[in-house]
Amino acid sequence: MKIREAVKEDMPQVLELIKELAVFEKEPDAVEISVADLEREGFGKNPLFTCFVAESENGIVGAALIYFRFSTWKGRTLHLEDLIVQESERGKGIGEALYKEVMQFAYDRGLKRVAWDVLDWNKGAIRFYERSGADILKTWRVVHMDEKGLKNYIEKSNVK
Q: Coiled coil: which residue ranges (predicted)?
């Protein structure tokens, strides 16, 4: 198995992993992006993300998608959007290898923090992250507003 930075041609397999993750997270119909979206946003003049893939003799079996953020407290930080390993390939150290690649990427750039979300019921991932030395914040809540919420808020408020 080899960990490497993804290339544009990997995006069809990466999208399949994203869809598999959505099923795992009990949101099978939530994925709206396309291969074209991934190719455009990740490989243009100003890419919005970096993706690492785990490649074995079976093809791409895992991926980690990251992007830079800015913290008013820390400065430039990194967000780990998804760390995905095909269900049939879990338990083989692939997730840990991808995780290490992400942490090395952040460390090599002198970043002050890597942040990500984990579902409260994903006990295996939580144990892994805690063993790695990550802090699972108990007092912070993830907040999202989807497209419908944005539309409703703007239409019902006097915000211009």
A: none
